[in-house]
């Protein structure tokens, strides 16, 4: 069986990646409808040798669509409901529905069963959250997580194509001794780190930090899990990195954790410090897995581990996860 698929926001960084991943995974696409806002509607893109004209996203754009992949942004609040009413299942990459108790928030390696209770919309979690959840889940199953302290090192492409352009341009400007004019980020990003992603909210945490806390609890079904986060933008093009310090309910050795993670779905362990092997964002881009290394016991507490986790946030953190959700929907007969 084939499925008619719409991509909303088809010209953006996530939309383009959704197209690539659909093709790579041989997703059973019937009709493919590419949609975007007025700014991009009418453009022509080539996909698998065929030309597609980008259509305008509006209430009428979803007739006959089985799966609507929303890449993110305001289109979700405006049009996701219209897509559901037209009979599509929406897989939404925006933050609009993630914490809605009536909407499943799904990472296929972690909580695939949650697709079973969808009512038309399934939310794709925040990129940094997905990456962390894939690494936490097998360890939580094995030893019970008591508390997580996470610090992120997030690539500029998390802010879209404009983030990439800003880093490139500023790098050249700094090297030439010219002034820089930050637009996408609050401060210069070239040769800098910015401990500020998205807007500031309660307790002076950013929205990105709250997403990592609240969404992880929902995905793991652990409403009270103690999690604290600091999210930082770094001058890296692609792939988010995260330092995780995890305290457990029972002792887990580094060797045990390595064994568990090596067998975990969607995880690749790269951890051979003698040979200087650990995950790095330069080498994880365009990959679908979550890479884990520097696995070691936290010697300052009895039952703790430190991990270094890296993954392509446009792939596993967005497009790949969304398409995996669509695959789970099909496998579990929920579409
Ligand atoms: C970022 N997490 O990296 C965001 C993207 N959704 O900015």
From TrEMBL:
One of its GO terms (molecular function) is NAD binding. Residues 4-118 form the Semialdehyde dehydrogenase NAD-binding domain. Keywords: Amino-acid biosynthesis, Diaminopimelate biosynthesis, Lysine biosynthesis, Methionine biosynthesis, NADP, Oxidoreductase, Threonine biosynthesis. Substrate binds at residues 154, 233. Its EC number is 1.2.1.11. Phosphate binds at residue 98. The active site is at 127 (acyl-thioester intermediate), 240 (proton acceptor). It holds the Pfam family Semialdhyde_dh. The keyword NADP applies. SMART domains: Semialdhyde_dh. It catalyses: L-aspartate 4-semialdehyde + phosphate + NADP(+) = 4-phospho-L-aspartate + NADPH + H(+). The keyword NADP applies. NADP(+) binds at residues 11-14, 39-40, 157-158, 179, 313. GO terms for biological process: 'de novo' L-methionine biosynthetic process; diaminopimelate biosynthetic process; isoleucine biosynthetic process; lysine biosynthetic process via diaminopimelate; threonine biosynthetic process. InterPro entries: Asp_semialdehyde_DH, Asp_semialdehyde_DH_beta, NAD(P)-bd_dom_sf, Semialdehyde_DH_NAD-bd, Semialdhyde_DH_dimer_dom. Pathway: Amino-acid biosynthesis; L-methionine biosynthesis via de novo pathway; L-homoserine from L-aspartate: step 2/3; Amino-acid biosynthesis; L-threonine biosynthesis; L-threonine from L-aspartate: step 2/5; Amino-acid biosynthesis; L-lysine biosynthesis via DAP pathway; (S)-tetrahydrodipicolinate from L-aspartate: step 2/4. Catalyzes the NADPH-dependent formation of L-aspartate-semialdehyde (L-ASA) by the reductive dephosphorylation of L-aspartyl-4-phosphate. Homodimer. Belongs to the aspartate-semialdehyde dehydrogenase family. This is Aspartate-semialdehyde dehydrogenase. The lineage of its organism: Bacteria, Bacillati, Bacillota, Clostridia, Eubacteriales. The gene is asd.
């Amino acid at each position: 069986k084939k499925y008619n698929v719409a991509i909303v926001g088809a010209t953006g960084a996530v939309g383009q990646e959704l197209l690539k991943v659909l093709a790579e995974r041989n997703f059973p696409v019937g009709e493919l409808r590419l949609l975007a806002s007025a700014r991009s509607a009418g453009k022509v893109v080539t996909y698998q040798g065929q030309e597609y004209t980008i259509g305008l996203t509006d209430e009428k754009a979803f007739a006959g669509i089985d799966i609507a992949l929303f890449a993110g942004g305001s289109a979700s609040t405006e049009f996701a409901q219209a897509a559901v009413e037209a009979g599509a299942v929406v897989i939404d990459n925006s933050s609009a529905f993630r914490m809605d108790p009536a909407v499943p928030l799904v990472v296929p390696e972690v909580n695939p069963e949650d697709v079973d209770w969808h009512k038309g919309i399934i939310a794709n979690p925040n990129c940094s959250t997905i990456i962390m959840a894939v690494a936490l889940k097998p360890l939580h199953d094995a030893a019970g997580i008591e508390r997580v302290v996470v610090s992120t090192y997030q690539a500029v492409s998390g802010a879209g194509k404009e983030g990439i352009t800003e880093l490139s341009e500023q790098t050249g400007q700094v090297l030439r001794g010219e002034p820089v004019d930050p637009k996408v980020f609050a401060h210069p990003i070239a040769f800098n780190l910015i401990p500020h992603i998205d807007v500031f909210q309660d307790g002076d945490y950013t929205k990105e930090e709250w997403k990592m806390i609240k969404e992880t609890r929902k995905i793991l079904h652990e409403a009270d899990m103690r999690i604290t986060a600091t999210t930082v933008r770094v001058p890296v093009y692609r792939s988010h990195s995260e330092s995780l310090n995890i305290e457990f309910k029972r002792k887990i050795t580094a060797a045990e954790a390595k064994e568990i993670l090596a067998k975990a779905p969607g995880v690749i362990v790269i951890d051979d410090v003698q040979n200087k092997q650990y995950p790095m964002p330069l080498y994880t881009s365009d990959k679908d897995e979550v890479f884990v290394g520097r696995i070691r016991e936290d010697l300052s507490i009895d039952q703790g581990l430190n991990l270094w986790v890296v993954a392509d946030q446009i792939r596993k953190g967005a497009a790949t996860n969304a398409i995996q959700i669509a695959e789970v929907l099909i496998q579990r007969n929920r579409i």
